[in-house]
Prior knowledge:
The complex is a heterotrimer.
Chain A: H1 10-15, H2 19-36, H3 48-58, E1 65-71, H4 77-93, E2 97-102, H5 108-125, E3 137-142, H6 146-155, H7 157-160, E4 165-166, E5 175-176, E6 194-199, H8 203-215, E7 221-225, H9 230-238, E8 244-247, H10 248-261, H11 294-329
Parallel strand pairs in A: 1-2, 1-6, 2-3, 6-7, 7-8
Antiparallel strand pairs in A: 4-5
Helix pairs in contact in A: 2-11, 4-5, 4-10, 6-8, 10-11
Chain B: H1 3-19, H2 27-62, E1 75-76, H3 82-87, H4 102-131, H5 153-161, H6 165-186, H7 194-242
Helix pairs in contact in B: 1-2, 1-7, 6-7
Chain C: E1 13-14, H1 19-40, H2 44-67, H3 83-126, H4 132-156, H5 172-207, H6 213-228, H7 231-241, H8 256-291
Helix pairs in contact in C: 3-4, 4-5, 6-8
Amino acid sequence: xxxxxxxxxxxxxxxxxxxxxxxxxxxxxxxxxxxxxxxxxxxxxxxxxxxxxxxxxxxxxxxxxxxxxxxxxxxxxxxxxxxxxxxxxxxxxxxxxxxxxxxxxxxxxxxxxxxxxxxxxxxxxxxxxxxxxxxxxxxxxxxxxxxxxxxxxxxxxxxxxxxxxxxxxxxxxxxxxxxxxxxxxxxxxxxxxxxxxxxxxxxxxxxxxxxxxxxxxxxxxxxxxxxxxxxxxxxxxxxxxxxxxxxxxxxxxxxxxxxxxxxxxxxxxxxxxxxxxxxxxxxxxxxxxxxxxxxxxxxxxxxxxxxxxxxxxxxxxxxxxxxxxxxxxx
Amino acid sequence: xxxxxxxxxxxxxxxxxxxxxxxxxxxxxxxxxxxxxxxxxxxxxxxxxxxxxxxxxxxxxxxxxxxxxxxxxxxxxxxxxxxxxxxxxxxxxxxxxxxxxxxxxxxxxxxxxxxxxxxxxxxxxxxxxxxxxxxxxxxxxxxxxxxxxxxxxxxxxxxxxxxxxxxxxxxxxxxxxxxxxxxxxxxxxxxxxxxxxxxxxxxxxxxxxxxxxxxxxxxxxxxxxxxxxxxxxxxxxxxxxxxxx
Amino acid sequence: xxxxxxxxxxxxxxxxxxxxxxxxxxxxxxxxxxxxxxxxxxxxxxxxxxxxxxxxxxxxxxxxxxxxxxxxxxxxxxxxxxxxxxxxxxxxxxxxxxxxxxxxxxxxxxxxxxxxxxxxxxxxxxxxxxxxxxxxxxxxxxxxxxxxxxxxxxxxxxxxxxxxxxxxxxxxxxxxxxxxxxxxxxxxxxxxxxxxxxxxxxxxxxxxxxxxxxxxxxxxxxxxxxxxxxxxxxxxxxxxxxxxxxxxxxxxxxxxxxxxxxxxxxxxxxxxxxxxxxxxxxxxxxxxxxxxxxxxxxxxx
Lengths: 330, 245, 301
C-alpha cells in the first residue's frame, strides 16, 4: 500500500526549527550588541542583596583584612571574573588587605594571580600604587579538602594556614605568612573584618556550614555566586546567614553601577540609586575611576539573549497550539 | 608575531575548534577536546604539588633551613607515612588487593561524616529559625508596610516591629509552600490521607514556581558564559588582536 | 598529637635537610611500606573490620571535637587544669594535624584520577588502538603542561617570586606556561562551559510547552523572572507603563521589580528551603551510615 507522505503544517514547522538554525540565530543575536552597540547603557535597579553587599564592602574600615575564598576559574569567567574584578577594585581602593585561598579548583590560585596582575596594571594607569603580595595581599594556594580546611579556619586561622611561606618584597627568603601585614593581627576567623566567597561550586554551602555560626551574627559573611547558584544561595541571605549577596551577571552590573554612581548619593531624595534601608548613610562610590567592567559590558547583550529565548519558547508554543487546533478540526 | 597575538590566536582556535561540535561531532572538535583534557590534567599535576603538597606536606616534612634572620624549622619525618597511606588508593587497580584502596578513602569519608551533625545545625538551624514567620497581622492601619523614607530611626524601628496584613499573607504563603514542598518530598509514598495528598499536590505546583524562578537565573548564567566567549572572539581577538582597533 | 607541633629537638623531628632527617624519613617510609605489605597479607575476614575501624576512628575525631567542651579564650602556653580541659586542648591542637592529613590524602587521591586517565591513553597509544592519535595529543599536551608548569614554578618560586610578577623579567618557561595556561587552557575551559547556552536554548524551545498545570506555572514564573533580569524591560514596565508609582501606592506592588521580588522571597526561597531540608536530612543520615560503615556504598562495607 502506497503511503501518502504527510506535509508538515505551519504549526509543525514552528515547532521544529533545526538546531543549527537556532544556534546560528543565537550567535548573530548576541554578536550584534557586542560588536555594534559598545557603550550602550541600560537602566537597572539593584537588588536588596547586592545593595547590602555593596554597603558592607564600602563601610569596611580602611587597612583591615578580609579573607577571600576565590573558587572560580575561566569556565565561569563571564560572571565570576566580573565579580572578582569589582570586588578587588573596591577593596584595593579602600586599602583593604586580602588573604586569598581556594578549595574548589587547582587552577583557581593561578587565575586569581593573573587577574590581580591585570588589575594592578589598571591601578598603575590610574596613578595608584599597585597591590603588593605580602604587604597588601596573599594568595595561599589550593586546599583540596574544603571541609577540613574550613573547619581548621573556623577553629584557628593560624593552624589552618600553618607552614605557608611567601616572599616579602626586597627580601630573598620566603617568610611565614603570619609575619606579613595582611595576617599579623589575625588569629581567629572572627578577626577578619569580612569573609567573602566568590564561587561557582559547592564551597558556598561548605563555608556556610562551617563558618556561619562564627560570622553571620556580626554580618561578616558575604558571597558572590554564579546565576545558577543564585536561588539556592538566596536562601542563606533570606535567613540572615549572609550579610550580602551578588548573583550572576546582573549582580556584577549592579555592583559596577553603584561603584560609579554611589548609593543614596548625594542624598536619598535626589540619588540615582536609592535604598531606604541606608537612607541616612550615603555612599559616594568611586567617580572618575574605572568602575565599568564585564557587568556593564555584557548586560545589554544579556537582554538580547533572554529576549531570543523568550521568543523561541513563544514560537514553540504557538506552533503547538496551531498543530492542536488543526488536529481537532480534522 | 608578538606573544599576545599568538595567545589570542591559540585561544580563538581552541574556542572555535570546540564550537564545531555544534554542527556535529568531528575530528577537529575531538582534537581540541583532547588538547583541553591533556592541559587540564597536566595543570592539575602541577598545581597539586605547587599549590598544595609543597607547602602542606613537603615543607613540613623536610623543614626549612636557617637563612639570615630566619631561624628555620626542623623537619617532621612522620609526615612521610602519608605517602604509603595515600598510595594505598592506587591498589584500586589490583584485583587481589583492591580492598586496601578503601583505607585512605575511609579516612576521608570518616572525617567528612564525623562533621555532619554539627554542620547540619550550622546550615539549617538559622533557616528553621528564619522560617518561623508571623502569620497574624499586628497592625491594621495600613494594608502594606508604610514607606519609611521620611521617618526617624525610632519610627522606622517601630514600623519594622509590626506585621502588616500584606506581610502576614506573604508569610502564610511562605510557610504553606515550605510545608507542602516538605510534604511532597517526605511523603513520596502513595498517601491515602486527603490532607497529605492535597499538600503533596500543592507542593508539586508550588515547586514549579520555584523551579521557574531558578530557570531564569540558570539561563542568565549560561548566556553570560557565551557572551564572554563571543566577546573574546569578536572584540579581543578580531577587533583588538587582528584588526588592531 | 603534640609530636607534630613541638619545635624543640626530639625523636619526631630533625634539623632541616640534615643526614639525620633523611635517615628518619627513609625509616618512616620503610615503616609505611612495611604496613602495606602487612595489609597485603591480612586475612580476608579482617579486611572489612580494618576499613570500618579506620573510618570510625577518623569520624570520631570530629564528633569529639564538636561535642567535647571547647577551650574558650585559651592563651598561648596555657596549661590545662583538669582532664576535660586537657582533652579539649589536645583536640584543638590536633586540628593542625588532621586538616593537612585530609588535604594531603585528598591531593594524593586526586592523583589517582590523573593516573587512571594516563593509563587508559598510554595503553591506547602503545597498542595503537582506535583513535590512538587523539590519545597521543592528550598525552602530548599533558606533558607539555607538566614540563612548562614545573619549569615556570621553579623560576618563579623562591627569591625571584616578586621579580617574576613583571613580564619584562620572564623567560622561555614563563612564556610557555602563560601560553599553555592562559592562552589555551583557560580559553578552552570557558568555551567548553559556554556550549551549554546553545543546548539550553534548544531544549527550552523544544520542551517548554504549556501542556499541563505544572508546566504552565513554571513557564509563567520563568517568564516573569527572565523579564525581571532585563533592566531595560523593568524600566519600561515600571516607569513607562505604570508611571513609576510611589512606594506607598498599591500600584507599586504590581511593578515587575516588586512582583519578581515577591516570587523570589515567597515561593522560590520557601520551596528551595523545603528541598534543602530534605537533602539535609538525607545527608545527615548518610553521614551516620558512612561513619558506622552501615552504608553499602561506604568504604567499610
